[in-house]
Amino acid sequence: MLGEYRISGRRATEITADIEQAVESGALQPGEALPALRDLAAELGVNPNTVAAAYRTLRDRGVIETAGRRGSRIRPRLALTPRDAVRLAVPEGARDLAGGNPDTALLPDLESAVHQAALAHAAHPVLYGGPALDPGLGDLAARSFAADLPPVPGGRPIAVASGSLDAIERLFLARLRPGDLVAVEDPGWGSLLDLLPALGLKPLPMAVDDEGPLPADLAAALEAGVRAVVVTSRAQNPTGAAVTARRAAELRELLAAHPGVLLIEDDHGHGIVDLPCHLLCAGPDGRPTTAHWALLRSAAKSLGPDLRVAVLTGDPETLDRVRGRQRLGAGWVSHLLQRTVAALWAAEDTAPAAAAYRARRDGLLAELAARGVRAYGRSGLNVWIPVPDETAVVAGLLQRGWAVAPGARFRLGSPPGVRVTVSTLAEADLPGLAEAVATVLRVRGGDVRGV
To answer: Mean pLDDT across the stretch 362-390?
Structure first.
């Protein structure tokens, strides 16, 4: 099972340290199966509970994964190794369509906003003991959320985090514990899929179509006992899905039967999408779908990735936990950043960027369809193209001057595909890119493979 390597240790901490050291040195390889609890306990002469404690710690640290009676294995990829750690080298002259970045030409000018933030800081410096949320940003966030959520007496609680992933991590830590199941979109956001094992959480995939997660998959996940569900409202990464009113109603009905599940809705596309936001956290009557929920919006896509600010609202108890834990750690998000985002957000006209991204997506989808290539991209910055072989397609497109992202970065068990970021494409680029994709996918006989 483990080749020549023999695990050692008498205490749980010793067994844990020995296995971790063996993984780091390469003595234990990714995917290798570990001995059953009782077998290893007998070999080491210790109580099975000691081995169970060691395995539990290793699982929580993301070193191993467990599958009930199928046993435990070294994770194929350590939990702290991100999916995009090995980036595709883009040769000189090739177009980089793999990064997922917004078009810098569509981002607002920072100079005036930073100057406003500096003046505000000079007049009202932020010191220890001050509020964590900048009042100006808080007011803008409240108005943004009020546009899509029914009002409540006294207003909704608001917290601020260092971007969407930081907000999601804080929500997980507020409500979940290692070993809990979390329903996630598949294909879905690679950073979220990386975060789960790093926190000792187990992902349960939900397939996605243009309208969001499939109801049957959410139903199965809820029956399996997930403790949290994460849904992207619009501009889903990598498929561009956007939850429709019909799909939101179907998903709300399922979630309402499991009120103890934490619902997290990520609306990171709020400034780059011209589709309405259909939320799951509350129905038309205004009642919360689940007891614990959160809705978050970040600045990264509409204002720039380096503005690491996200605002979130949710049920008061969950938001209190998030803010309380934040006070014990980072304390707060820099008010210089908050004020800069507030100044940009207040002056932002989202229509031009949303229209530009829509034109680029729709144009590429039309060019691909004209060549018999099926693809998806209802909203956001990306187009998802199902393919039979990711490696071959990525290599073939790179040879033709186009760098795209392999779908493995975003998948758990869904079929292969590639992600094309359209944000920097011009209208003149679209026919050539579509022809390159069709050429790479073309099979003998001149037809384009349907997948």
So the answer is: 97
